Fold:
Amino acid sequence: MIYPITIYGHPVLRKETTDITKDYPNLQQLIDDMFLTMYRADGVGLAAPQINLSIRLFVVDLNILADEDPQFKGFKKAFINPRIVERSEELVAGEEGCLSLPGINESVKRPKKIRIQYLNENFEECDEEYEGFKARAIQHEYDHLEGIVFIDHISPIRRQMNRSKLSNLVKGKVRCRYNVKTA
Structure:
């Protein structure tokens, strides 16, 4: 099933999410559907709030970038009940966009390196470190679980410059090639 993407302005994007248990209904199907929804929208990550579910789950697949950088080959993961437990002090700026904020791209400073603990699709505990673009993609999706969107990390002047675009999103004036759910 391909879900509609929840657009900026919808209250679910500002809620902190709750942990799930192994017996969450149809969990594997949900994860598969999240990947499918993400692929249909040409994304590299998707968090549950972006499909109107307030649970601690996100998926990332960087395989599409493997032609440019072999380190991304095979990087396809589901993160269940994740917690970022360490962040480097060194920040790195990088361009970001979001399926929930179509048409908006901004440079965002994030920690270069993170350590994250989570459960994988088999509910096995994982404790891993990532840096560079992997860390950026994970942090972006993780933020969704905390009720944060990437524009919360940009300067007030850059937010002001995007005010009309953000206002249009809140009003449901959205044009993109994937199905959306507005407030």
